[in-house]
Amino acid sequence: KTRTVQMLLMAGLALVFALLLLVALSVLVLIIFWDSYRLQAAIGLCLFYIGGSLFCAWRLHMLVSDESSPFSATLEELARDRERLLP
In sequence order, what are the residues at sequence separation of 6 or more whose Cβ sits closer than 8 angstroms to the Cβ of residue 45? Predict the structure, then answer.
């Protein structure tokens, strides 16, 4: 149980640091292109984030709409056990 909590904590911290890196890189891109292409850089970043969001939403929809039950093997095993136990 302690190991699971530690793994979840490390995964959460990794996500936080990855988001901070993404923000810092976005600011860096805007600073680099501020004088000449600030609007295009901002639009490009927005399109990149929208694309990533749409991809993640699509993958989530595919995972949610998956018809297979996570306990299908267990249910089949219980059905076989029930058939063996009941005459």
Answer: 26, 29, 30
